[in-house]
Amino acid sequence: MIGVYVLMPVAHYPVYRVTAIDPSWKAFWAHWIALPFWPSGPLWFLWQLVAVNAIAAMLFRFAPRPVEFLARLSSNAGDHPARYFSGLVAISALVYVPFAWVFRPWDWLQIGPFSLQPAFTLHYAAYFFAGLGIGAYGIERGLLGSDAMLGQRWASWAAAGFGGFLLWIIPSALIVQGWNATLPGLDIVADLGLVLACAGMSFALAAVFLRFATQRWPVFNGLSDHAYGIYLVHYVFVIWLQYLLLGFALFAVAKAGIVFGASLLLSWMTAAVVSRLPIGARVLGADRRMLVRAR
After folding, report:
1. Three-class DSSP category at 116
2. Which residues pair with 272 in a beta bridge?
3. Could you tell me the pTM of the whole model?
4. Cα end-to-end distance, the chain, whole Å
5. How far is the CA of 106 from the CAs of 23, 39, 98, 117, 237, in angstroms?
6. Helix, strand or coil for residue 111?
C-alpha cells in the first residue's frame, strides 16, 4: 500500500514531464487521479504474493499432506533433477498454454491498485508451490542441495536454459513480425517455448550458483538483508535517473550501466536507512533477519 500509493506517483512523475504541456505536479496529479486505475509499476506482483502465501498458510494449517507431497518431490529431485524438470514443464504447460489461447502475454487486467497478468496467473502459482515444496523439505537439501546433481551438471543446464530461451524468443519475434498468419501453429510453439524457457533458465541459474557461488560474501549478506527494501524503492531511482540522463549524449549501454549501478546503490542505502527506523524495520523485515542471523 505504501509503495503503490506513495512511491509509484513519485516514480511516474518524470514520465509525465517528458511530453506534458504543463509539467507541474498539480497538473500531473489531476491526470493521475483521472485514470481508470492506479498504476502500480513493478509492485503489482506483491498482492499476488500475499494471496498465494495466504493459500499456503491455510494448506499448512488445514491440509498439510499436499505440502508434504511437494516436499517429497523435492527430495527426489536432488538425485533426479531432469525428472523434476519434466514434471515442472508439464504442469506449467497445463496451466499456461490454455490461458495463452485466450490472453496474450502482454494483456493486463487492472482494477484500482490491483494489476493482473491473466495469462500467467496460474503459471506463477505453479512456480510458487514448487518453491514451497523445496522450502518445506529444506532449501539446503533436495533439488538445491550443495551436493545435488543440479550443481554438478551446471554446464548441461546452462545449455538447456539457453536453448529454451531460443525456442521462445525466435517464434515470438516471428509473431511480432506477422509470420503467424503464414506459419500455422507458431503461437503454440511460442507458448510451449516460453514454458521451456522459464523452467530451463530457472534451473540453469540455480545450477550455476550452486556450482560457483558456494562461498559466503559479507557484501551479499547485506544485499540479501535489504533485498525486499531495494525491490520496494528501486523504481523511483530507475525512472528518475533515466529522466535526468535524457539530456546527456551518451551511448545507451553507458546510460544503462549508470542507471543500474546508481539505482542499486541508492536503493540499497535507502533500504538500510529505513530499516533502522522502528516502523521501517517492521515493514521491510530487516530486524527479524538480523535477529535470526545473530542466533
Report:
1. strand
2. none
3. 0.82
4. 32
5. 29, 15, 15, 8, 25
6. strand
Domains of the chain: which residue ranges? 41-214
DSSP 233-280: HHHHHHHHHHHHTTTS---HHHHHHHHHHHHHHHHHHHHHHHHTSHHH
- Non-local (6+) Cβ contacts of 129 within 8 A are 52, 56, 70
CA-to-CA separations, 166 to 20, 29, 184, 196, 286, in angstroms, rounded? 40, 43, 19, 10, 39
Type of residue at 126: A
- 139-159 pLDDT, tens digit per residue, is 888 888 888 888 889 999 999
Per residue in 80-97, pLDDT (tens digit) is 899 999 999 999 999 999
| Across 22-43, average pLDDT | 92
CB atoms within 10 A of CB 235: 21
Exposed/middle/buried for 255, CB within 10 Å: 0-12, 13-18, 19+? Answer: middle
